[in-house]
# Entry
Amino acid sequence: MEPLPNGNSTVATTATATNTTTATSIHAGNPSSKLTESLKLEHQLLRVPFEHYKKTIRANHRVVEKEVTALMSVISDSGDLSQDDAVQHLNSLVSRLQGLKRKLEDGNRVENLQAQRCRARIDHLESADAENMSEWNNIRLKRILVDYMLRMSYYDTATKLAESSNIQDLVDIEIFYEAKRVIDALRNKEVAPALAWCADNKSRLKKSKSKFEFQLRLQEFIELVRTENNVRAVMYARKYLAPWASTYMKELQKVFATLAFTSNTGCEIYKVLFEPKQWDYLMDQFKQEFCKLYGMTLEPLLNIYLQAGLSALKTPFCYEDDCTKEDPLSQESFRKLAMPLPFSKQHHSKLVCYITKELMDTENPPLVLPNGYVYSTKALEEMATKNSGKITCPRTGLVCNYTEVTKAYIS
# Structure
């Protein structure tokens, strides 16, 4: 389904003579204006690879700092050595320097790939113009679908679509695979990969005041209590939970009480801490932290683009039983997606013919059949011409003469 980034769509509706119902048509504006508005929605396209690029640079910098500090320490501690020891020591230093060189080369290769990806996305945005909008929008649609598949865990399908469309540099498959490893581990009730991810992004998480690592530590403590390994639980709490006491004392007190209540408690306050849904909560929390870290939207891009269009189409009529089936909001899935959206403010209404899907106006006025259904003059005239002046209502099957129709006036 084509996304609706600008809400440029017309709702086909019908009306009765006693209760004329109208629908909105958002007309397409200036092509250059449309392009500018579309590019405003491409924040994530540039932000994600840029954040990944910065993360790679920081990681490489830490590796170099660590190795250089270790080398300088070894050199300063060398002291007076015999000739053989000095040769051996120098060989050891050379070996470590060669190892550092390999790490620098690998790091540089990864940084170049990230920079190339940023450049490819900038070039992609700069290539958008009125002449190739159709092709550019087609690529954007595929990017949106890949993003949706990755968020819904359809990794293989997303990878195949990206490869077949040659848009690997425009999507974030590698980053989502990074998240997949943590999510799979949490699904298997393992926190080690998630804690390692927190350690890799410690400064960023601390800056955003994230409590995800603290929640992981609490869950590890709960699992130790679940297995009745209270001694290890207390030791674990002293080592990993005590540093959080000044910030999250209430949560710590509640969790520490599980040592007395155990996992078999009937007390609802503590029983909920041992329920499997706590792991689901951790997975949801990780997804939020992951998206925040890389500057991603919490909702899939597909939902956001669809909601942008649905917000222009949503009217009270869409939720009535006689809503036309051609209205996207006649479908339950779209209604659910549009539920949190406000109704569209319609200052100027348009009536669209059910048969021809053309606008009914002064040039093509609406006509009312004896059964109350409304169609355009053009549609009914063509039908009468082909059927010797007879008209058949396409929805009820009523047959009447063209002379029996009356004009409908919209106030």
